[in-house]
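ok here's MIA2 protein, seq below lol
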Amino acid sequence: MSRIMDQRILLLVISFSASVQSTKVLSEWKKCGDPECEKAMSRVQATTDYLGPDCRYLNFKTGEEIMVYSKLSRENENLWTGSKGKDFGYFPSDAVKVEEVLIGEEVEVLTKETDFLCLHEDKYTF
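and the structure came out like this:
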């Protein structure tokens, strides 16, 4: 009985640590087209299929168009955020090619805790 309980506790700890790791802050800073990060910075096209590791990431297929709204900076500079239809999330910059630049100058701002939320129906996961 004790061994079964130990295995359950170990599985719970592993599950919790994987959850914490997948929702950690990816960068303290990001670059945007305006201080509120509301303006699209560019329009890009996917050069490869991409399936992200968790719900914070944008999944797409080769050839799909994505609007870019921010780029992480200082840490994880290869991750950009963008939207495709109603979907929004992070994706690697090397999985896309820039089709059109929409802003001339980038502004660096602090990220917010809400930048790293996972949206599942009506629930928010950090």
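fwiw Strands lie at 29-32, 42-46, 65-73, 79-84, 87-92, 96-101, 107-110, 118-120, 123-125. kinda neat tbh
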